[in-house]
Amino acid sequence: MFDLTDMEALEELEFNLLWHHALRLEMEEAHLAQKTLHNFRVRLMEHDGGRLAFSETTDRMIEALGLRTGKQRLDSTHVMSNIAVLTRLGLFCETVRVFLLAVSREHPGLGEGIGDGLAQRYLKETGEASRYEDARSGEGRRRLSVCARDVYRLVDRFRGTAVAKMEEYGLLERLLGEQCHVGRHRDGRPGADEDDAEEGKVPIALKEPKEVRSYSMQTPHDPEVTYSGHKGKGYEVQVAETCEEGNAMQVITHVEVTPSSGSDAGVTVGVIDTLRERGIGPSELWCDTTYGSGHNGWEAERRGTELVSPVGGRAPGEADEDDGLVRLTAADFDIDVTARRAAVCAAGHEAVSEYEDEDAPERVEMHFAREVCEPCSLRSRCPVRWRRRPELGGEWSPRGAYVLSADLARVNIGRRRRAESDGQWRKRYGLRAGIEGTNSELKRRHGLGRLRVRGGERVRLAVYLKALACNVKRMVRARLDEMLVPPAALATAPPAA
Predict the structure, then answer these.
(1) How many domains does the chain have?
(2) Residue 232 has pLDDT above 90, yes or no
(3) How many CB atoms lie within 10 A of CB 125?
């Protein structure tokens, strides 16, 4: 709620009368050991308590305040866990350093087999970190090659031993696989003037920077951190909230931590499903272009949700007939993606049958009767095609039919692109902008932008609790607004007797 450290929160608990009143504590009860707070946080993570606290409490707020959830908006914001941003050389050095310290702590006998030269490149005799990664740009590439060969030597040295079961060894293996090419044909021969010249060649070669994937490890202290080309290292937090004009407050309905290297397009359908499972699924969902692919628009439509977002890419050129009339497309047909009612063409004729492709459910084939299609005034512009013997339900129709095969994802894109060309659509889409203020509020007021924790589980817990704190704060303000009498009402009130 207040973005405090553990020690600051425990101090407020002990000495702040406002906290005593809020938590209904007597002064002699207002004390908590830091270890107890730490253990409780661990138990929350073990039992998915953060997600349950957020969803269940938020649902109770929605019910208590009578909030409507039909209109919601969705966006993502970039957050950082409590890590240092490492260079590529720094990543190698820190991962080796973490491994060496773990081996010396847990398997000191096995650690004695590590060469002094290798160990001294990363750790001083006192156990403190060396500055091997602190290299000038001209030396950085050479030292990086040395580090890559050192990683291979360590992985090879401890393969099959008790050390190989350690988490730190797994990080070393992961680093080697993501950053290096490994194989017998690789000539990892150190130069005569390099620091590992006397330690022999190894069968590896460094990958070029463009070959390293964005989901590769960015720090050994938080292996779940990934990289985004335009946002940097960290996590993405998906945030959904209501945007109903009549609500006493807008409530955050959903938060979710996703990899920074992933695309927002992959979360749209999952967010809708999660909200529907809680009974607060939106009928309209505002989001930006990344979320609004044709596939997502079609899947959302199947779930009863209209995806309101700009359409990416260029609009295809429209083909004209010889008479200058614009050709109709499948987007001009009224197609129910749930198949509860028959499709209707642009002239108002219903399809006599529809068939979904079992291997590609986005594709549907609609059949229209010959007697209504041939005399139709739109026939020359219509995309339906005559098929002499279309297969109907596993049998061949002897009379034939006019057939339209449509990709429902493309149909969704076509409809939305036409709506977007309307001048009123931009005004309607303006409703999405409000979620930027929510993202800013979570970061500035509740410390979401730079978290004090690291590790995926701790990050997820922190995100759930910060979003819940924001909702609680908004609820309190909404209740206070209901209780307070407006100054104008006081001015017009009759004098007391």
Answers:
(1) 3
(2) yes
(3) 8
